[in-house]
Design goal:
This protein is of the alpha/beta class. The protein has 2 domains: 4-156 and 338-369, Medium-chain alcohol dehydrogenases, catalytic domain (Quinone Oxidoreductase, Chain A, domain 1); 172-315, Rossmann fold (3-Layer(aba) Sandwich). The protein is built from 11 helices and 18 strands. The strands form 3 sheets. Strands 3, 5, 6, 9, 10, 17 and 18 form a 7-stranded mixed β-sheet that branches. Strands 13-12-11-14-15-16 form a 6-stranded parallel β-sheet, with helices on both faces. The chain has a 5-stranded mixed barrel with strand order 1-2-7-8-4. α8 links the parallel β14 and β15 (279-287). α4 crosses α5 and α4 (163-183) packs across α10 (320-332). The longest helix has 21 residues, at 163-183. It binds nicotinamide-adenine-dinucleotide (NAD) and zinc ion (2 copies). Residues 42-44, 47, 171-172, 175, 195-201, 219-222, 225, 240, 265-268, 270-271, 288-290, 314-315, 361 line the site of nicotinamide-adenine-dinucleotide (NAD). The site of nicotinamide-adenine-dinucleotide (NAD) has 32 residues, from α1, α4, α5, β12 and α8.
Length: 370
C-alpha cells in the first residue's frame, strides 16, 4: 500500500518551508516506519534554511523527534510495532576505521552519505507529488507525519515519557548533557562555564550539574535565558553584553585562575573567542556551537597557550542506545529537566513562524506536535 503524508519541504535556502503531501518509499532491509508525534526546531535546521549549512534540495528538515513505530522492515531488529522511540541522527556502520576507534560520529558511511541527505544505504525514503526524490536531513527528515529510518536510529524508551519532552533528547539535550558527561572531564567541585543558554547550553548546564560541578557560570546576552539557566542549575549568571565574562571566570575559578572547563554552545565567533580566554591554564574547552563552515574565526594566540585542551564535539559523544533510555529515566525520576525547554507547541502549518521566533531568540524550543 502506498503511504502518503504531509511534510514541510525546503526547496531553496532563505525561502519558507512548504507543507506538501509526499509519498513514502517501500520499507526494505532494516528500515523502520515511524509515525512522528513530536519534533523540535533546532538551530541546525535554521542554519540549513538560512544557507549557512548546505544540503541538496528539496529536503525535509527535522532531526530531533520522537514517535511510534508503525511498521518494521524484514531485517529490523530491536524494535517492534507500537514501540515509543526517540530518533538518533547518527547511524553508524560499526566496522569502519572510525567505528573501530569508538568514534561513531565520524563513521565513514555516515560522513559520506550525510552530506547527500539520503538514507544510510544511499536510497531516498520519500518523493514529492511530481515524482522528484526528496532528501532527508541527517538521516531523519522528521518535519513530517512519518519518517523512515534505520532500526538502529529508533531507540525504544518508556511509554510514560511524553513525546514532546522525549523528542528533545534526540538532539539538543543529548548534545549538551552528553558533552558534560561523556566528553568533558568535569571533576567534582569544578568551575564550569557554559556560553550560550539555548537548548544545547541549558542542557550543558544540567550535564555539568549531574557531573558534580561546584560552580556553574552561565553566559548569554539575554537575561531571560540566564534566568532559565539558573533554574537548570547555574550558580552564577553573566550577561556578556554588559559584564566582563572573562573576569567572571577568573573570579569564580579556583584561586582566580579561570574556569576548569568551558562548554561553548552559542555558535558565534565571540563565544568561541570567549571560551579560550575564560578557561584556566591546563583547562578544557569543548565547542558545541558552530558557525558557517566557510567563516574564519580569529583568536588571540596567547589565549590558546598554556596546555589548554580544545575539542569540537558533535552530539555529546552519543551512544543513543545507551544514553537515550538513561536520559529518559533521569527525566522520569526528576533529575533532568525537560518541561522548561519547551517554549511553544505548534502545528506543522506554523513551522515557519516557529523558525522566525527561534531566529529572533524568543524561544528555547518550539515543538511541532503531530
Ligand atoms: N554539536 C552538536 O552536535 C550540535 C547539536 C545541536 C546544535 N548545535 C549547535 O549548538 C549551538 C546552540 O544551539 P541551540 O539550538 O541551543 O541554539 P539557540 O539559538 O537556541 O541558543 C544559542 C544561545 O546563545 C546565545 N548567544 C549568542 N551569541 C552569544 C554570545 N556572543 N555570548 C553568549 N551567548 C550568546 C543566544 O542568546 C542563545 O541563547 C548552535 O550553534 C547549534 O548549531 C550543535
Ligand atoms: Zn539539532
Ligand atoms: Zn563506521
Amino acid at each position: 500500500m502506498t503511504l502518503t503524508y504531509r511534510a514541510a519541504v525546503l526547496h531553496t535556502p532563505k525561502t519558507p518551508l512548504k507543507i506538501e503531501t509526499v509519498t513514502a518509499a517501500e520499507l526494505r532491509h532494516d528500515d523502520v516506519l515511524v509515525r512522528i508525534k513530536a519534533a523540535g526546531l533546532c538551530h541546525t535546521d535554521l542554519e540549513v534554511i538560512e544557507g549557512g549549512l548546505r544540503y541538496p534540495m528539496p529536503i525535509v528538515l527535522g532531526h530531533e523527534a520522537a514517535g511510534i513505530v508503525e511498521e518494521v522492515g524484514p531485517e529490523a531488529q530491536g524494535v517492534s510495532v507500537g514501540d515509543h522511540v526517540i530518533l538518533s541522527w547518527n547511524p553508524h556502520c560499526g566496522h569502519c576505521f572510525y567505528c573501530d576507534r569508538d568514534l561513531p560520529i565520524l563513521c565513514e558511511t555516515y560522513l559520506t552519505e550525510g552530506p547527500k541527505a539520503v538514507s544510510f544505504d544511499g536510497r531516498h525514503h520519500a518523493r514529492l507529488g511530481d515524482g522528484r526524490d526528496l532528501k532527508q536531513l541527517m538521516f531523519l527528515g522528521a518535519f513530517g507525519e512519518y519518517a523512515i529510518v534505520k532500526a538502529e536510529q529508533a531507540i525504544v524508551v518508556p511509554k510514560e515519557l511524553p513525546f514532546d519532552r522525549g523528542c528533545l533528547i534526540g538532539c539538543g539535550v543529548m548534545t549538551g548533557v552528553g558533552a558534560a558527561l561523556n566528553i568533558a572531564r568535569i571533576a567534582h567541585g569544578d568551575t564550569v562555564m557554559v556560553i550560550g543558554c539555548g537548548a544545547v547550553g541549558l542542557s550543558a548546564v544540567q550535564g555539568a550539574r549531574l557531573a558534580g560541578a561546584g560552580t556553574i557560570v552561565a553566559v548569554d546576552l539575554d537575561d531571560k535565558k540566564l534566568a532559565l539557566a539558573e533554574a537548570f542549575g547555574a550558580t552564577v549568571r553573566v550577561n556578556a553584553g554588559r559584564d566582563d565574562a572573562v573576569a567572571a571566570a577568573q573570579r569564580h575559578g579556583a584561586s582566580g585562575r579561570g574556569a576548569d572547563v568551558v562548554l561553548e554552545a552559542a555558535g558565534s565567533p565571540a563565544g568561541f573567542r570567549l571560551s579560550v580566554e575564560a578557561v584556566r591554564p591546563g583547562g578544557e574547552v569543548i565547542w558545541l556551537g558552530k558557525t558557517d563552515v566557510e567563516t574564519d574565526v580569529a583568536f588571540r594566540w596567547g589565549a590558546l597557550m598554556a596546555e589548554k585542551r580544545i575539542r569540537r564535539s558533535s552530539y555529546g559523544g552519543a551512544r543513543p542506545a545507551r544514553d537515550f533510555p538513561l536520559l529518559a529515566r533521569a527525566y522520569l525520576d526528576g533529575r533532568l529537566k525537560l518541561d522548561e525547554l519547551i517554549s511553544r507547541r505548534i502545528a506543522l502549518d506554523d513551522i515557519n513562524d516557529g523558525f522566525a521566533a527561534l531566529k529572533r531568540g524568543e524561544t528555547i524550543r518550539s515543538v511541532v506536535m503531530f
